[in-house]
Amino acid sequence: MKKNYLESILGLMTLILAISFLLKFINVNTESNETYDLRAKFLKAGGVVIGNDVKMRGVKIGVIKNVSLDKDFFAVIDFSVYNEVNVPKDSSVKIASDGILGNKYLSITPSGDLSIVLNEKDEIRKVEDYESIEDQVSKIIFLATQ
Questions:
Q1: CA 132 to chain centre
Q2: Closest Cα partner for 79 from 103, 55, 44?
Q3: Domain limits, the chain
Q4: What angle do CA 104, 108, 111 make, to 5 degrees?
Q5: What is the CA radius of gyration of the chain?
Q6: Confidence class of residue 2 from pLDDT cuts 50, 70 and 90?
Q7: Closest CA relative to residue 45, chosen from 19, 25, 64, 62
């Protein structure tokens, strides 16, 4: 039996590369404990589920933790935001989607005084309710018939 060192070295490099990809995958998909919780109330939750992203200007800054109804039948969405991101107090939040059939996510738009930020358990008051594709099409048809 002839020993082939080149094949052994390539096999070892492949194993190291596979382990590094696995560690990177675990690191990216593990939620950091360094977060704070916020809340928003909507008339329609529009298909948002636990685990969906929270984004600011297209960048993921957190994760949705809970979706429930309150006593007044508003959709209450509790979400966590990474500590290194300070959400301004006058920010607005809306439910958006990745394309026509994509996942739903919370989109936060910062505005107002950027030095006044939300703290743990605060609620974002400026919300834009979810509009389904059917709602948007009916608006377009209504505007076209005017």
A1: 18
A2: 55
A3: 1-30, 35-133
A4: 160
A5: 22
A6: low
A7: 64
- 144 confidence band (pLDDT: 50, 70, 90): confident
- Cα separation of 4 and 19, whole Å? 23
pTM, two decimal places: 0.71
Which secondary-structure segment (H or E) carries 89? none
CA distances from 45 to 29, 60, 69, 99 (A): 25, 19, 10, 17
Residues in the chain: 146
Q: What sections of the chain are H helices per DSSP?
A: 5-28, 133-144
How far is it, in rounded angstroms, from Cα 89 to Cα 87? 6
Report the Cα–Cα distance between both ends of the chain, in Å, rounded: 85
Which is nearest to 60 in space by CA: 90, 26, 89, 98? 98
* Residue 70 one-letter amino acid: D
In the chain, the amino acid numbered 26 is I
CB 51 within 8 A of CB 63: yes
